[in-house]
Amino acid sequence: MSGNSDPLSPRAKLAVTAGRAAAAVSRAAGRGSGSVIGGRVALKLDPDLLARLATHLDVILVSATNGKTTTTRLIAEALRAAGPVVSNALGANMPAGITSALAGGSESRFAVIEVDEKYLSGVARDTDPKCIALLNLSRDQLDRAAETRMMAEHWREGLAGSKAVVVANADDPLVVWAASSSANVVWVAAGQMWKDDAWSCPSCGGVMQRPGDDWFCGECGFRRPTPSWALSGDHVLDPHGSAWPIHLQLPGRANKANAASSAAVAAVFGVPPQVALERMYQVQAVAGRYDVVQFQQRDLRLLLAKNPAGWLETFTLIDPPPTPVILSVNARGADGTDTSWLWDVDYTRLTGHPIFVLGDRKLDLAVRLEVANQSFQVCENLDQAVQLAPPGRIEVIANYTAFQDLRRRVGN
After folding, report:
1. Strand 110-114 and strand 85-87: pairing?
2. pLDDT, tens digit, for every residue of 57-91?
3. Can you spell out the DSSP letters for 15-29?
């Protein structure tokens, strides 16, 4: 391996080869990219393979409830200014998928890796990252993931003693509490639109005070740290106070926040903000998100939203009424089978939009929209929804497996 003084052992090479073969069989059978099954096979043959594959790489881990796939892409583009990058660009963010990604990185300098929140501590232990980006924590997959403060505590314990530079969102109290166990933290004022998981102090349980953009606990003194990087409108402010313009093809305030965190990560490796931000412009879509596709002679924009915080951000992206909106919700294993989160989303923000509802849990969503006094139609499938929608581009918002279903239907 290029740059690796400790080449892979015969066992590790066999594991990589077997993993690639399993992935190829999975792809040939039409079962997806094969990255997860390939990684599982490889780790069965060599349980230490992830650590071995990471030894020659400068590893950057990215974790959050929302925005980690996009931020991983932005960081990867920025760091390509400094050397070759391997990344799990398709979003397979648990150890098996990460192992598959790194198996293709023998000639790379950097590994930019999206990590599921639940697996961050373990992956950090195995890969010895140089940098860890922590963006946000909010409720998601309530049947699988821990309550948010428990997840923050898991991060906090896992990061204690880490030598990595932690780039963390100063506006999210849960992230700040988790990152505060680290010796070397770069704070970024990236904003926090969804605040409903951060009204109690993660340190003592007291009530958080939130005047303006600031926050603090009046009981224990836990408070927002002073950021060295900040998102300010359409600019990133660096630690020297210089303002660098953000030009993205990706829409919305949330992606500008992702760009600000990404610029801070790139700077850790010597890539200047101007260069990093210019390279981020190349990203047009991320695993189908934000793509505009043609279907039945109509333009559909595909938007992914998996939890209350994500839906709130997504509602700020869509075109104003009377733009038609299709909503699709499933509750399969990858989504989390608990749909109670639908009641935490403010669907009154869709007032004035013609709404069309589909997906496995369309009736759950219909009840929620009824209570929110929204006008909607329940549809059997995407074809029917598109036929019923009035003229104009259609905004399509779906959670994880519903989004994958829709992508397959439109051939994306």
Report:
1. parallel
2. 999 999 999 999 999 999 999 999 999 999 997 77
3. HHHHHHHHHHHHHHT
Helix (H, G, I), strand (E, B) or coil at 121: helix
Token output for 164: 């990595």
How far apart, in Å, are the Cα atoms of 337 and each of 106, 214, 344, 361?
A: 38, 35, 16, 10
Are 114 and 66 in contact by the 8 Å Cβ rule? The answer is no
Backbone angles phi, psi at 21, to 5 degrees: -65, -45
Whole-number CA gyration radius for the chain: 21
Q: What was the pLDDT predicted at 3?
A: 42
Coil, strand or helix: which one is 243? strand
pLDDT tens digits along 199-243: 899 999 999 999 988 999 999 999 999 999 999 999 999 999 999
Q: Report d(CA 312, CA 292) in Å as an integer.
A: 20
- β-strand pairing of 58-63 with 85-87: unpaired
Contact residues for 319 (Cβ-Cβ < 8 A; gap 6+): 392, 393, 395
The mean predicted confidence, pLDDT, of the chain is 92
